[in-house]
Known about the structure:
- By secondary structure, the protein is α/β, with parallel strands linked by helices.
- Helices cover 34% and strands 25% of the residues.
- The protein has helices spanning 3-31, 48-65, 76-82, 85-88, 108-116, 135-141, 235-238, 241-254; strands at 34-39, 68-73, 93-97, 120-124, 145-148, 152-158, 172-177, 180-182, 191-198, 210-221, 224-229.
- The longest helix is centred in the first third of the chain and has 29 residues, at 3-31.
Amino acid sequence: MNGAWWMVALCAMAILLSVSVEAQRAGTAARAKKRLLVVSHTAGFRHEGAINSFDKIIAELAEKSGQFTVEHCRTAEDVKRMMTPEALKRYDGIIFSNTTGNIGIPDLKAFLEWVKTGKAVIGIHAAADTYHDEPAFVEMLGGEFLTHGAQCEVEVIVEDPRHPAVAHLAPRFRVFDEIYHFKNNERARLHVLGSMDRHPPDGLPGAGQPGDYLLIWCKPYGRGRVFYTGLGHREDVIESEWYKQHILGGIRWALRIVRAPEPQVGRPRPQ
Ligand SMILES: [Zn+2]
C-alpha cells in the first residue's frame, strides 16, 4: 500500500468522524426538549372546564420553560393511535389530565412496562379516577379515587419543601377546590408531598376530624417517576400562578430536568 493511498484513507476517516460528531451534536440538540403526551380522553365523568384550563396552562409552561413540548391525545381514537407501544417511543412522559374510567390504552401492560424504563407520569386530579378495574394502573399511580364532598377550603401541609412541585408553597397553604378522598392511605408506598391532618370540611361524615389525608405525592416506578396532585378540579385553581408552578415543578422532577432527591417512600408526616 503506498503513501498516497494512506493519505486518502486517513482523510476519509477524518471526514467520517467529523460527520458523525456533527450528527451526534444535532441529535443532542433535538433531544434536549423532552416530549410529553397530554392525555385528556374520558370514559367516565368529564371535567370539561378543568381539561380546557389545563390545556391552556400546559401550552404556556412548555413555551416559557423551553424544556419540553406537548402533544395532545383527546379522544378514544387518539388513545388507540398514540398510545401503542410503538407510538409511545416518541415520548418521555405522559400527563393524565383529568382522565376517567377505562380510557382504552391498547396494551396497558406494555404501557406500564414503558413507564418502568425511566419515563414520567404526571397525574392531575381525576387521573386517580381512571382504570378502577386495573389494579396495576392504580398501583402505578399510587392512589384510587373513592369519593368527594362539596368544594371546600382546606389547609395543605407541605411535607417536603425540597421538592420542586411544592418548594414555592407556604409550609401550610390554603386552597379552595374539590378535595378527593382515596380508597386507601398508601403513605407506606408514596413519597407524600402534601397532606391534610384533618378530614376536609366538605359535608361528608367525619368533616373536621383529625386524620391523615393524602393529596399530593410522588413515587418511583421501576426506573420511572410518578407525580400526582389531587388538586386541579376548579379552573381558577388550575390557572393560578402557584398551581402552574406546582405543575411545572412536578413535570421537571418526573422528567429529571431538575436535580432533586430521589423519592423516599413511607416517610412519616412531619410534626
Ligand atoms: Zn373533580
